[in-house]
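Quick review question:
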């Protein structure tokens, strides 16, 4: 674990200090103003990320002992909900450097942590996570899609990282692979290294502004000083925030659902036939947020996977209810409701563990 050395990130008076801070709502509304243009042109959300950086969002996950804001897990999830209610693409991108920071903070590699975390937390560098090949993506392949080999004082990477968000804009990618003997390792890769290339961003149904695509490694040599964890038999086991279907993904789904419910609420003030649907969705949203925060605090009456499956269905219902209320106008490109419906599909496929996928299929097919 990281030493109690100060990273000296600094805390501006403009930074959001807690989830109830009005400035968080202001940032969320500003992100909402930018979201449709980003989606229409598949633009990298540079302005939105700058707003988050200036508001101290990148420092939420850094403990106060290391100079960050040190938000609790529950407060971070509250923050994700508000950011996603403004712009899901920007909120999702924020979770990427957060994921890198979390893994560096829990790493035994103190030197690497002290070198990189201050850059990411200050917004002076962008980091992303590409570990689906160790969790949910292409694990059925005959051989590992990302192969590692010890070479001299380092590790050589050969293969494919199927999903990297914002990779072409990243300074660092946290990725993982498998050695011939079956051991695994997590490594932080500086993207300017020889042998690292990125495919053109995938043309996704939604969240195109995140510029998500594949990273390829061809005899890319990384010194051992860039190893974050491992080698070990299962390098992901027991690592905070490292498992798929985590609470942050559910929080993003609830943020998107909140935006749709707010739209439905505004419409229902003029159309009484929408009130019953609004109240039902609000009640479900409140219950899900309560369960999410309880799980973040280490309690609660459901599992992470159960909550994720419920959140998946909730965001689908909420966004489609908003589209129904918007009628034909909502089906026109450029209307936020149509974008929300497309973005809701993201949660059916992104980091979706098999138990969650199975539960969702059963609900959609009304089995059981």
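Suggested answer, residue by residue:
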């Amino acid at each position: 674990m990281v030493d109690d050395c100060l990273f000296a990130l600094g805390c501006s008076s403009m930074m959001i200090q807690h989830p109830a801070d009005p400035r968080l709502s202001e940032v969320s509304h500003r992100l909402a103003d930018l979201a449709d243009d980003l989606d229409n042109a598949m633009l990298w959300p540079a302005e939105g990320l700058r707003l988050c950086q200036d508001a101290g969002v990148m420092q939420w996950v850094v403990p106060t002992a290391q100079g960050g804001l040190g938000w609790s897990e529950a407060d971070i999830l509250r923050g994700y909900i508000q950011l996603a209610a403004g712009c899901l693409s920007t909120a999702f991108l924020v979770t990427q450097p957060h994921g890198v920071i979390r893994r560096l903070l829990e790493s035994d590699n103190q030197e690497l942590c002290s070198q990189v975390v201050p850059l990411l937390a200050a917004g002076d560098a962008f980091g992303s996570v590409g570990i689906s090949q160790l969790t949910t993506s292409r694990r059925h392949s005959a051989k590992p899609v990302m192969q590692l080999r010890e070479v001299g004082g380092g590790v050589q990477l050969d293969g494919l990282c199927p999903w990297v968000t914002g990779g072409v804009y990243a300074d660092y990618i946290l990725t993982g692979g498998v050695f011939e003997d079956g051991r695994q390792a997590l490594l932080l890769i500086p993207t300017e290294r020889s042998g690292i290339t990125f495919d053109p961003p995938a043309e996704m149904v939604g969240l195109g502004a995140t510029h998500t695509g594949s990273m390829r490694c061809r005899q890319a040599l990384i010194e051992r000083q860039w190893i974050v964890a491992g080698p070990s038999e299962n390098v992901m086991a027991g690592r905070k925030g490292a498992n798929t279907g985590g609470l942050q993904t559910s929080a993003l789904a609830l943020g998107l659902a909140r935006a749709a419910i707010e739209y439905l609420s505004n419409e229902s003030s003029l159309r009484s036939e929408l009130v019953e649907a609004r109240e039902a969705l609000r009640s479900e949203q409140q219950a899900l947020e309560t369960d999410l925060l309880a799980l973040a605090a280490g309690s609660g009456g459901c599992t992470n996977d159960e909550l994720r499956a419920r959140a998946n269905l909730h965001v689908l219902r909420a966004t489609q209810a908003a589209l129904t209320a918007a009628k034909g106008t909502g089906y026109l490109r450029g209307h936020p409701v149509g974008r929300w419906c497309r973005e809701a599909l993201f949660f059916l496929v992104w980091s979706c563990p098999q138990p969650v996928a199975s539960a969702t299929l059963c609900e959609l097919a009304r089995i059981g």
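Why it works: Residues 304-326 form the longest helix (23 residues). Strands lie at 127-130, 146-151, 154-165, 172-178, 184-190, 196-198, 212-223, 227-232.
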